[in-house]
């Protein structure tokens, strides 16, 4: 753990395993509620100094961290592949994405402009300034174990907040590597704190209960986000919630079926399907259904499942056996209710796969709303294709979910693209585009996919309070 500028160990530790091989790759300090208290105390003590440091000095720490992260890109990516499983190329992309947040918020720190507002009274002047909220508590997931940290830490530091972070128990080594960088970049003692723990519950409780924590930022499942938001409500703490999704991917019959199938298969199997913006329902208009399914199936057949460090691997393992079981249940349920299985469908457990959590990339067509996969987030390498007939029908089906994070639309018709963009109740919409994300663009969901946005101007505003001054002169 890293508290008040020092690395700490505890009596108890927990092990971190490589999901591809089962090999134990590290032992990490097992923090408890008292460690969370201690870390919050350090962040409280550091807040006054840090929040009154100039934006230029705060930006300098972030710029240095950016440079260090790029210098260590290869080593960080290899660590990520061993700890989380994604193919090395995807891990390299993630380190770049993670570093982008450091740079972007370093730049943005200097642009927290205030406002003056004309008053109706001749003797009055209004001035608005934005200032750091205070101590921020952050909880991050394992699926993007470096970028989900910088997406929270960078705006916290840019705005002048201090922060305590609890990373996912499956990927604490990546978190430690990020904190080593922030330490070397010159973040002062107490400004950034890391509490690793096998059991997240007592840490989450302390984050909600401590009166000095002014904001809770969480990325993870909707169920846990709802619990934490309830806990934070008792003191009306600010919350940012980046939760689950059930993205529709809509392919209209004027789209090029080959291009659309290529896009759908790339984004569906990204990170072995373990992404909150992963397409969970692929709606294809009947006119191009056959050619779309054939192209998609051919692409899936060529995917190579394995250890992410091996050359040519396109699909890594799942994070654990619970994930494998959940996916098996969804596939069995769909097939028993009439889905057609084109590829995969089973766990891979022979030979090199025996010690890891592998599942064959799977393609199902003829999926319908009676199946679990139609509503439940899959978070795994299963593509579910659902046919549709017309525009109104598909928009209604796509919006028929409690989630509202990402959606994708493929069409060459500009008016249809614009209408769909406006009609879909999702926070992020890719139009003929499978990667509508960037440090400079707001990321976040509607409905039960979350509250607030990360990245972009919005991502900084979420760490700032608005203060109005009324001056009588
Ligand atoms: P997933 O199912 O994808 O692992 P979770 O929401 O369970 O998603 O995990 C995301 C993060 O939330 C992890 O850091 C995990 O340790 C943490 N977490 C899980 N349960 C709780 C809880 N009850 N209180 C606080 N944090 C939690």
Structural class: alpha/beta
Task: Tell me the overall shape.
Answer: globular
Distance between the termini: 52 Å
Q: What is the average of the pLDDT values?
A: 98
Proportion of residues in helical segments: 25-40%
Summarize the structure.
The protein is 39% helix and 22% strand. With 473 residues, the protein is of the alpha/beta class. The protein starts with a strand and ends with a strand.
Written overview of the protein:
This protein is an alpha/beta fold and 473 residues long. The protein folds into 2 domains: 2-243 and 447-472, Aldehyde Dehydrogenase, Chain A, domain 1 (3-Layer(aba) Sandwich); 247-431, Aldehyde Dehydrogenase, Chain A, domain 2. The protein contains 14 helices and 22 strands. It has helices at residues 33-51, 55-71, 73-84, 88-108, 147-159, 172-184, 200-209, 222-233, 257-269, 289-301, 321-336, 391-399, 414-423, 456-461; strands at residues 2-3, 6-7, 13-17, 24-29, 115-117, 124-132, 135-139, 162-166, 192-194, 213-219, 238-242, 247-251, 279-285, 340-343, 347-348, 358-359, 362-365, 382-388, 406-410, 428-431, 450-451, 464-472. The chain has a 7-stranded mixed β-sheet, with helices on both faces. It has a 6-stranded mixed β-sheet with strand order 9-8-7-10-11-21, sandwiched between helices. It has a 3-stranded antiparallel β-sheet with strand order 5-6-22, with no helix packed on it. Helix 13 links the parallel strand 19 and strand 20. Helix 2 (55-71) packs antiparallel against helix 5. The radius of gyration is 23 Å and the shape is globular. It starts with a strand and ends with a strand. The relative contact order is 0.14. The model has no long low-confidence stretch (mean pLDDT 98). Bound molecules: adenosine-5'-diphosphate. The site of adenosine-5'-diphosphate has 13 residues, from helix 7 and helix 8. Adenosine-5'-diphosphate (ADP) binds next to helix 7 and helix 8.
């Amino acid at each position: 753990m890293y508290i008040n500028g020092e690395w700490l160990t505890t009596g108890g530790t927990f092990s971190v395993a490589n999901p591809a091989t089962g090999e134990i790759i590290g032992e990490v300090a097992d923090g408890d509620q008292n460690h969370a208290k201690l870390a919050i105390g350090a962040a409280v003590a550091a807040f006054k100094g840090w929040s009154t440091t100039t934006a230029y000095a705060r930006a300098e720490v972030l710029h240095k961290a950016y440079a260090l992260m790029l210098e260590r890109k290869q080593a960080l990516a290899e660590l990520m592949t061993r700890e989380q499983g994604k193919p090395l190329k995807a891990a390299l992309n993630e380190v770049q994405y993670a570093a982008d947040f450091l740079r972007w918020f370093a730049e943005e720190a200097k642009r927290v402009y205030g406002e003056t507002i004309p008053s109706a009274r001749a003797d009055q002047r209004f001035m608005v300034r934005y200032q750091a909220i205070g101590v921020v508590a952050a909880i991050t997931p394992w699926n993007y174990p470096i970028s989900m940290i910088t997406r929270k830490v960078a705006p916290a530091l840019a705005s002048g907040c201090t922060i305590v972070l609890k990373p996912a128990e499956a990927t604490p080594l990546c978190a430690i590597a990020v904190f080593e960088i922030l330490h070397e970049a010159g973040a002062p003692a107490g400004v950034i704190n890391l509490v690793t723990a096998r059991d997240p519950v007592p840490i989450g409780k302390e984050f909600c209960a401590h009166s000095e924590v002014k904001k809770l930022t969480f990325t993870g499942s909707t169920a846990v986000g709802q619990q934490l938001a309830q806990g934070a409500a008792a003191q009306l703490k600010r919350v940012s919630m980046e939760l689950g999704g059930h993205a529709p991917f809509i392919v209209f019959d004027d789209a090029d079926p080959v291009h659309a199938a290529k896009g759908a298969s790339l984004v569906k199997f990204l990170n072995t399907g373990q992404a909150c913006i992963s397409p969970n329902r692929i709606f294809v208009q009947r006119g191009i259904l056959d050619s779309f399914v054939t192209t998609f199936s051919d692409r899936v057949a060529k995917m190579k499942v394995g250890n992410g460090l091996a050359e040519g691997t396109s699909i890594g393992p799942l994070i654990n056996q619970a994930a494998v079981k959940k996916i098996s249940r969804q596939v069995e349920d769909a097939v028993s209710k009439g889905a057609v299985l084109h590829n995969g469908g089973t766990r891979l457990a022979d030979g090199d796969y025996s010690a890891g959590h592998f599942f064959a990339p799977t393609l199902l067509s003829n999926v319908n709303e009676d199946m679990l996969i139609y509503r439940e987030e899959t978070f795994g390498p299963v593509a579910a294709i659902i046919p549709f007939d017309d525009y109104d029908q598909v928009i209604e089906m796509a919006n028929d979910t409690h989630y509202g994070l990402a959606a994708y639309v493929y069409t060459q018709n500009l008016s249809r693209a614009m209408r769909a963009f406006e009609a879909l109740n999702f926070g992020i919409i890719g139009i003929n585009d499978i990667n509508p994300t960037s440090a400079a663009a707001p990321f976040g969901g509607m409905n039960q996919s979350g509250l607030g946005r990360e990245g972009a101007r919005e991502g900084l505003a979420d760490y700032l309070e608005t203060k109005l001054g009324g001056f009588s002169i």
